[in-house]
Amino acid sequence: MIAAIRYLRLLATRTRAPLIPLAGCVFSVVGVFAYDRNEVGATWGLTAILCCALAAWLVGAILAGEPTSQAAMATAALGGRSARLRMELVLVGLVATGLAVIFVGYPLALSTLGRPTVFDRHAELGDVVAALVSQCCGGLLGGAIAMLFGPPRVVRRATSAAALLATLIAFVALPAVVGPSAIARAMTDARPGAVDGTEALAWASCLALAAAALWLAQCWTRRRP
Prior knowledge:
Helix content: over 70%
Low-confidence stretches: none
Number of strands: 0
Largest sheet: none
Mean pLDDT: 87
Order of helices and strands: HHHHHHHHH
């Protein structure tokens, strides 16, 4: 695991490809919370959708920056394609967790350090827990989709980016029944400081979609020569 994390760190820093999505993360979190009196649930529901898109963008950029020959050597060193998939899953988990900490921690830090009006009310413990889980679920789904359409399954970067973007747009355009849009609606309608069943169902739908993407990625990898 430690070796995999070290390799992921090397992979993330070897090219400038992740810099643009990282800049997108910074501008997103600063822009969303640039104004006062943000609604607690609705705002963190919006950032859950942003986490899905940003995680897909960042994971996709990191994976696309790995040369094909280096990927083959790393896969062999890890012990095969199944081990490679597990390493990519670690990347998805790290990205999703990092985004959750940023989008939840930044406004809380603002509230603590002298801008108490960042939200329209005090963010209670239940709000914070729901926000953290929501951002993580959105990030996991986005990262899993990036894995599905990333190398070695889709080698051409243009094709990978187009498939990734089309899938993300489909999730946002569909009725808010499953996925990050369902999380946003559930958080908007939730009672202040409470975690209700609608939010749990939305989280479960995101995790189920992420699991389906990972399963498809594994099947796709096995079918490649």
